[in-house]
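Cont'd.
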Amino acid sequence: MFNETVKSLRIQKRLTLRDFCEQVGLDPSNWSKVERGVNPPPGDVGVLDRLAEFFGLSGEEKLSFMDAAALQRKEIPPDVADSAILQKALPAFFRAARGHELTESELKGLADDIRKLHTADPTSR
Amino acid sequence: MFNETVKSLRIQKRLTLRDFCEQVGLDPSNWSKVERGVNPPPGDVGVLDRLAEFFGLSGEEKLSFMDAAALQRKEIPPDVADSAILQKALPAFFRAARGHELTESELKGLADDIRKLHTADPTSR
DNA sequence: CCTTGTGTGGTAAACCTCTACCACACTCGT
DNA sequence: ACGAGTGTGGTAGAGGTTTACCACACAAGG
């Protein structure tokens, strides 16, 4: 979960909640709630970027950081939402993952869907 | 897309926008915008249920109807969001589908993830 | 004890999203 | 040309979500 991640990252840096918020420009009270999952993660991408940078995340790490935030907000990550590819692949995923027919071939089909969509449209990511 | 689906379903029934809204209990002006994708699909599950029933959708059809609505809202479908299983599978999907390492083995890994999670926790869906 | 530092509760306000209402434009039959 | 019927634009307001502020509780050190 995003809230746990972000809390342990802060602790790793041996920062108090207040100090941390000061440095990143956040409200301590609100952030306390965010870390405990009482309030949702920030939706503002700018804020998330600041956080990722502050924690020195980049590449794959940063992506899954962003994903975790979106996921806890029950949203689809913005870059995924914009991608026509995933608009098509996601329903397939939902179908497969709901387990109605979670057979080997179903999964192969899903995999094929994704791959096909990728090769078809170069506008990925 | 949800908006296109819902529009063609209405047309299939040979209903004018106003008549349709009357029968389902929706505002015509707003619904006009929904059908064209100007406004987002309704988020209220009750409304979506009414729509699905009105169109005679059930089972698999209804599920993907609901998914389409959520997707266009850039949200994760409620039942998926609630499932601990899928909460874990989704990041794997995002990783794979972004295509950073969209290799055969990556996809196999994703498939395994999903299957493992399914068999591990019977609280699916 | 006081003081200082830390996290948290409660709440009001800013903010945004979605809906409902009203008026308008366009078409088509009469 | 008029009327009814159909879809759409604009906009205000309801409703919900997210943030910011203030005050409090608790702990440790002096």
